[in-house]
Structures are given as structure tokens and as C-alpha cells.
Automatic annotation (TrEMBL):
Record InterPro entries: AmpC-like, Beta-lactam-related, Beta-lactam/transpept-like, DUF7586
One Pfam family linked to the record: DUF7586
Species this protein is from: Sinosporangium siamense
Gene3D superfamilies: DD-peptidase/beta-lactamase superfamily
Record protein name field: Serine hydrolase
Keywords: Hydrolase
Record domain Beta-lactamase-related: where: 18-322
Residues annotated as domain DUF7586: 349-431
Length: 450
């Protein structure tokens, strides 16, 4: 599994080796993805006396949440639920938190307590879903729903039960049938299979290990049960970057990657979408998830902007630095920067060419360009202002994809002598600043410019 030069491979492996030795990690594997394929793999340390391979299993913890979220979004796309539905609509009889919406559970903005009303669920055998839900009392809510980001493992326990009831099968079977198998992730399982790493805690002041327990988490399993390999997580990184493999529509995946909440307010370096963690670091905007369970740490990030991904899996309770994955990406960028795709002409309808060029919203100058696929881009000439892209709606108009006009309709208005103006949700764009010949709301002073 290599698609980088010898020098790049050596630099990547050295960074991984430095992390393993310096942080005293029993074993760690990592991979870098580019263009939908794993281009580098590295492993350090030992699992049962041998070096780990791309097929060695590790527990991935909360990366499980992203797999569950994909199935929830498939249910939404099938019309079986609405993200604005309260969870009690699908889990009737829920004694508390029933008003929290599915979208809020997916984005950790529902205000639920972080942990379930059981013993420390990551280190003890789990309970059935009915028992978990019946134990949810008045202290289940910690914040007003929608007010803020508050990570909730309990919320994903509920989402796993939602999947199970809609699919009439255990949540993990639905994940396997609808996500893992279509993506070719055949080594991702709810319980370990050989060869797999064993979870350890490393003593803070001595070079000795303590085995960590591992149990079936029962109803909380959707929050962190899965085990996987570097090979499988590389495929998932490619998926998050945009290689959907028929599992989701590209627009649905893009919706999951949109920030729903941010963790650090003004800075906005970390946040959460719909089942995906988000981060902005070193000029990249990444989507993916981290994972932590007793004895294991994992992370997978993907950058849709250049179809790049990175991941690591380790069998230690603590110790792997956040910088590891970003350093691996930086090494790849430094040694083998990605070349831009060559520009090629794109056929465009003559009717669309007629729309290109300068337009004015009052006195503010904009330029309209045609995008590949017959889309339109409307951007302010000065650089600051309301920029949006639009795609045809199939009925002669365009729908905004992003920016201020996301979801709004752009209509081309024609008169006897051709196009007179653009109408974007009552805003009128004309070929001249405040064109007196166009229906400018409020009219134009008859004396004109002076």
C-alpha cells in the first residue's frame, strides 16, 4: 500500500515512529489517502509480538457515530423521517428528552447529558435499549435544546435505537448492509476479530502496561462499539472526502459536513456537522471523527477540497498527540504537493452565455459566471458581499447552493428585447446601476445620476 516516493514515505514513517516512541504507544498504524486511494501506510510497535499491518483491527470508538449517522441520513432521504422530528416521534414512550430533534442529536446540540444513566458505560457491560431509555430521568437534559454544543454519547445510543426500529434489525446489521459492505469495509465489526490489538493503559511513570476491559456496550454501542482497520478507515476517509460509492447522494454528504455548531465560539477551529466532527487547521477544513475508548485512540480526517485523508489507530488509553495527523498531511503537502487538475473547456448553452458578465444590485457591481454542469456563480466584483452559486431546478430557474442565497430562487426575467433583470427572492439585479428601464422596487429618481 504505497503511492508516494521513497523520501516521502521515509518522512511519514519517521513522524509516526517519533510519536510511537515519544508517547510510549504499544502499537500504532496510520495511513494517508489521496484521490480515493490509500497512498501510504505505516505501523510501529507490536501486536502479539509482530508489527501491525493495514489489516490489524483496533477499536475506533466514536467514529462509530459517523457510521450510524450515515444510516440516519439514508432514512431521511427515503422519507422515513425528518431531521426536525422530535426523537419521541420515533421512540414513543421516551420518558425524557423526547422533544429533542434528530438533527440536534446528530449535531450534539440537543442539550442531553454526555453520559448515560448507567455505570461508566465504556468499561462495563451494556444494558438493553428499553432499560437505557427507562432510566432517563429529569436530569437527562443539561441545556436548552439548540442552545449550544454539548457532546452526548447518550444521544447516539438513541439514534442507534431509531435505526434499529426503522430497519427492523440491530443497528450494526443496518450499518453493515448499508454502509460497510457497499464501501468495501469488510473488516469493520462490532466485536474484535483476529488479528486485533489489545487495549492498554500505559503507566504514567513507568514503562508497564495495564490491560483495559472490553465489553459489548449494549444500547450504548452505537456511540463507540466498532472495530476497524487502517485499510477500512482509508476507504471511509475517501467516502467523507466525496467518494460516496452510492451510499449517499453527494448533496447529503455535503450537508453532513456543514457546520451545525461550533465548539470554540469566536475561534471556530472545531465544530460538528451531522454525525461528523469538523476542524479548521493549517489552511484546511477537515471532516471526520476522533475515537476514544479505554485502551484505544483513533482519528480519521478528510479534506473534500483536494480529496485527501489521513488516519491513525492506536491501542493506548491516552497519549497520541493531536498534531500527528496534521503533521502527516503537512509532510505529504511538502514533499509531494498535489497538482491542480488541468483546465479543459466545458460546453455551455448559448442562453447561459447571454447571462454572463457584470450585473448590479443597486450600485454594487457583481459578475455572473457559468460553472461546469450549467450552474451559475454570482460574486461581488469588490470581493466583499453576498456571493452564491446556483444550480438549475429543471423548471427554468436556479436554486442557491450556498452563501446568502442558499435555498433561494434566481429567476431570469425577459422582456420584448431580451433579458431585463435577474430576480433573486425580490432582489433585482440589472445590467446598469439602478437601471431606470428595469422594475426597481421603490423606483429610480427620474432625474437620474447627477
Amino acid at each position: 500500500m504505497t503511492g508516494v516516493g521513497e523520501g516521502t514515505s521515509r518522512a511519514l514513517l519517521r513522524r509516526l515512529a517519533t510519536e510511537q516512541a515519544g508517547a510510549r504507544i504499544p502499537s500504532v498504524v496510520a495511513a494517508v489517502v489521496r484521490g480515493g486511494e490509500a497512498v501510504w501506510f505505516g505501523g510501529r510497535g507490536y501486536v502479539d509480538g509482530v508489527e501491525p499491518t493495514p489489516d490489524t483491527q483496533y477499536r475506533i470508538g466514536s467514529i462509530t457515530k459517523s457510521l450510524v449517522a450515515v444510516v440516519v441520513m439514508r432514512l431521511r432521504d427515503e422519507g422515513l423521517l425528518n431531521l426536525l422530528d422530535p426523537i419521541a416521534k420515533h421512540l414513543p414512550g421516551l420518558p425524557a428528552a423526547g422533544e429533542v430533534t434528530i438533527a440536534q442529536l446528530l449535531s450534539h446540540s440537543g442539550g442531553l447529558t454526555a453520559e448515560p444513566p448507567t455505570e461508566w458505560w465504556e468499561r462495563t457491560p451494556g444494558v438493553p435499549a428499553d432499560e437505557l431509555m427507562s432510566g432517563m430521568g429529569g436530569d437527562t437534559m443539561r441545556h436548552r435544546p439548540g442552545r449550544r454544543f454539548h457532546y452526548s454519547n447518550l444521544g447516539f445510543g438513541l439514534l442507534g435505537e431509531l435505526v434499529a426500529r426503522h430497519r427492523d434489525m440491530p443497528w450494526e446489521q443496518a450499518v453493515r448492509a448499508e454502509v460497510l459492505e457497499p464501501l468495501g469495509m469488510f473488516s469493520t465489526t462490532p466485536r474484535p476479530r483476529a488479528p486485533h490489538a489489545h487495549g492498554y493503559a500505559v503507566h504514567p511513570w513507568a514503562d508497564v502496561l495495564l490491560p483495559e476491559p472490553e465489553h459489548d456496550a449494549g444500547a450504548m454501542a452505537p456511540a463507540g462499539q466498532m472495530w476497524s482497520t487502517a485499510s477500512d478507515l482509508a476507504r471511509f476517509a475517501a467516502f467523507v472526502a466525496g467518494d460516496v460509492g452510492g451510499v449517499l447522494e453527494p448533496c447529503t454528504l455535503a450537508e453532513m459536513r456543514e457546520p451545525a455548531v461550533v465548539e470554540d465560539g469566536d475561534a471556530w477551529t472545531s465544530g460538528y456537522g451531522l454525525g461528523l466532527q469538523l476542524t479548521r487547521e493549517r489552511g484546511r477544513r477537515l471532516a471526520g471523527h476522533t475515537g476514544s475508548m479505554p485502551g484505544f485512540l483513533a482519528t480519521v480526517w478528510a479534506d473534500p477540497a483536494d480529496s485527501t485523508g489521513v488516519l491513525f489507530l492506536a491501542n493506548t488509553t491516552t497519549g497520541v498527540s493531536r498534531a500527528l495527523v496534521m503533521d502527516l498531511l503537512s509532510i505529504l503537502d511538502e514533499h509531494e504537493p498535489r497538482l491542480p487538475e488541468p483546465w479543459v473547456p466545458a460546453p455551455t448553452d448559448t442562453d447561459l452565455l447571454e447571462l454572463t458578465g457584470p450585473w448590479y444590485w443597486g450600485p454594487a457591481a457583481y459578475v455572473l459566471r457559468v460553472l461546469p454542469g450549467s450552474g451559475l456563480s454570482l460574486t461581488p466584483v469588490a470581493g466583499a458581499g453576498r456571493a452564491s452559486r446556483f444550480m438549475p431546478d429543471g423548471r427554468g430557474a436556479w436554486i442557491g447552493l450556498d452563501g446568502y442565497y442558499a435555498g433561494e430562487t434566481l429567476r431570469v426575467v425577459r422582456g420584448a428585447h431580451g433579458v431585463t433583470h435577474l430576480d433573486i427572492n425580490t432582489f433585482v439585479f440589472t445590467r446598469q446601476p439602478y437601471d431606470a428601464g428595469a422594475p426597481i422596487p421603490g423606483g429610480v429618481d427620474p432625474s437620474g445620476w447627477r
